Amino acid sequence: MGDLVTDELITLQTVASITGTLSALGSGYIIVNALSTGWKNLESADRFVSVLSFMDFFASIAFAFGRFGILIEFFCPYQAFMIQFFSLGTVLWNGW
């Protein structure tokens, strides 16, 4: 297995940005729907899905920015924190 060439890296980054954007849109829809219904009016399962969507929304936003985080010095550590924290939170929330 050799190193990835530039075209392959661009393709992988494009796929990650597109899927991150689509995931953020889906999670955002669930969050808006839950907020418009009212937190107290939600069933327990809907509350669990809303919290999961909240964490996934921020992880997806970080993935959607992709390599843009490298270009801005202060954004790269913030992006890394968002990916690590919210992705792990999503996994732990699913396992709980």
| Broad shape | elongated
Report the major sheet.
Answer: none
Q: What share of the residues lie within helices?
A: over 70%
* Number of discrete helical segments: 4
- Low-pLDDT parts are none
Going by helix content, strand content and strand pairing, the class is: mainly alpha
Distance between the termini: 38 Å
Mean pLDDT comes to 87
Beta-strand portion reads: under 5%
Number of strands: 0
C-alpha-based Rg, rounded: 16 Å
The secondary-structure element order is HHHH
List the helices and strands and how they pair.
Blueprint: H1 6-37, H2 44-65, H3 68-71, H4 75-95
Helix pairs in contact: 1-2, 2-4
Explain what you see:
- The mean pLDDT is 87.
- With 96 residues, the protein is mainly α.
- The protein is built from 4 helices and no strands.
- The protein has helices at residues 6-37, 44-65, 68-71, 75-95.
- The radius of gyration is 16 Å and the shape is elongated.
- Helix 2 packs antiparallel against helix 4 (75-95).
